[in-house]
Amino acid sequence: MTGLLLILSVVAVIGREAIREPAADTPAIAIQVGAIGQVADGFVVAFEALNQANGTAVAVEIEGTLMSGSSLVERSVATIDYVPGHGRTSGGLFFSKDPRKHRLIIRATGFQDP
Q1: Nearest-5° Cα angle at 30, 24 to 31
Q2: Nearest to 59 by CA among 85, 83, 87, 80
């Protein structure tokens, strides 16, 4: 009898989760900028990609731009292999110019479904 109650409880929890949040959610990647450091050939901007949805994303493209007014100073791109649903992954973008002296914009530009 205890085993049957345990099995029914597990099935109920799994069923509730399946109804509440579908597995096919579109990923929602937000970028948080971290530390900016100097390296041998320039500068690196650390970032964290946060997936705010249930859907998993692979091959996530991250683009960083340095702007001076409306002019593009420099662009850097990174690819993150995997960001799980409601998970986070970190990385970095390299620049030859100092990002602290320009307007820095970092955003996710695309992903693939796993």
Answers
A1: 140
A2: 80
